[in-house]
Amino acid sequence: MKVRAELDTTVVKNLGQTLRAISQDLRDEYLQPHETPWIIGFSGGKDSTLLAQLVFEMLLELAPRERRRTVHVVANDTLVESPVLARHLDTVLERMSKAVSPLRLPVKIAKTTPSLDHTFWVNLIGRGYPSPSRVFRWCTDRMKIKPTTQYIKDQVSVAGEAILLLGVRRTESTQRRRSVERYENGERLNPHNSLTGCKVYKPIVELDTDDVWQTLLQSSPPWGGSHRDLVTLYRNAGGAECPLVTDRSDAPSCGSNSSRFGCWTCTVVEKDKSAAAFVEAGYEDVEPLLEFRDWLKEIRERGDMRMATRRDGSLNFVGEGRLIPGPFTLEARREILRRLEEVQSEVEFPLIRPEEIEAIKQIWTNDFAEALKSDA
User: Fold this and answer.
1) What is the pTM assigned to this prediction?
2) pLDDT, tens digit, 9 for 90 and up, residues 170-206
3) Rg, C-alpha atoms of the chain
4) What pLDDT, on a 0 to 100 scale, did the predictor assign at position 325?
5) pLDDT > 70? residue 2
6) How many of the other CB atoms lie within 10 Å of CB of 190?
7) Tens of pLDDT along 122-150?
8) Three-class DSSP category at 306
9) End-to-end Cα spacing for the chain
10) How many CB atoms lie within 10 A of CB 39?
11) Helix 273-280 crosses helix 228-237 at what angle (to 10 degrees)?
């Protein structure tokens, strides 16, 4: 036992040294002689939470007159987030928003959402796009990448440049390690792969999962509350969160085979292990969503629910002349909306907004008019 205690002390000491080095690196970069804003990509998961906490703590250690650069904490809401995660994220963002003024921190809290034309339901129920798959993953770009990259572009437009802070870690996964190494240039800041004027900063890249949890469990967030709800969230989900995505090369991390919690509608994965774990943990409002998600995946494969032609009227053949069906039929779309509204009433949680229903019905009207014109 004595040997084990000495080992644990060494681990804590080394982690403490590592965290101090990260804090010093954050401080050094923040105090550089320019006004370039920071943008923290915040998913509400453990890694982005730790990153935000380290940045808040660093700012609090500075004299108020030294806090001259704006820090944006930016979350993305696809509008089909798991209700469990959505509630947690909203709670944390609200606490941050209320804390920044009393703490005299130059922090802005923002949440991006897809435009009405790019929401999940407008595309799936309105235009009839089949539920996303690995072959046709139409959701990530519209719902995640575009809203957040637009926010970053807006900051670049104002300031001339922006620095995106990401809570990615080399040991998170093989995919993440490759992504990290692909864009490393030996410098603290790396050019973003696709956003001109944006540089990427990865302060916690060398921490491992145990480091992250140990730090969170032994501390309280500067914005108030505790990390208890976050720990419970992970324990019940049995996995990790889908991270904020700002580049198509990062898209595989969204809808991967791991037990990630993100969009409750995700049909890219074969089984939603995270949602199933939430159901087992007693989250009753998740079960109807899981059943609806499984039904969406099932009807994607049914020929009677799909049109033969694509939306532009063309036929899509692959391989040995195999026809790839087009969008959901208008009858199928009506059925999906009807069932969705029933589930919404059951869970008493907003799943689709009135403006989306209005946009969907307008698309249906236009499609019906085009069909009449073609038949004439």
Assistant:
1) 0.86
2) 877 544 555 555 556 678 999 999 999 999 999 999 9
3) 23
4) 85
5) no
6) 17
7) 999 999 999 999 988 999 999 999 999 99
8) strand
9) 86
10) 25
11) 110
